[in-house]
Fold this sequence. Notes:
The chain is an alpha+beta fold. It has helices at 5-17, 19-46; strands at 48-57, 60-69, 73-81, 87-97, 100-104, 110-115, 120-126, 132-141. A hairpin with a 5-residue loop joins strand 5 and strand 6. The longest helix has 28 residues, at 19-46. The protein is globular, with a radius of gyration of 23 Å.
Amino acid sequence: xxxxxxxxxxxxxxxxxxxxxxxxxxxxxxxxxxxxxxxxxxxxxxxxxxxxxxxxxxxxxxxxxxxxxxxxxxxxxxxxxxxxxxxxxxxxxxxxxxxxxxxxxxxxxxxxxxxxxxxxxxxxxxxxxxxxxxxxxxxxxxxxxxxxxxxxx
Length: 153
């Protein structure tokens, strides 16, 4: 069984043209694949609630964008700014169960937090060497976040 004529012609043309044409064809076709995925990402985003957390951990300040799906899955970006002005960025993933968020960063750090009815946030950050740090702050719901749930401001 032979491939349809257009596919055979394309294969013959690519074999004659070489790798440069193949790479060029890949560059031309790749952006259209990315555009096709955008509506699905935007649709998924509308099914998430958003929060902006801000507060302190020891002498550092933090801001975190948290996105929660209906099934309780959580993703977010935790920005920890030190007194020196340096900022550490943690992309975290986890869940919300009974009002408590528990999320993990690839480094092994575990973030746990609970927000009360007034928006007061309390929690801990357990770093990979098992040291547990207390975090305190506030939470605002319905705040716009970036596509990866990072704070915009």
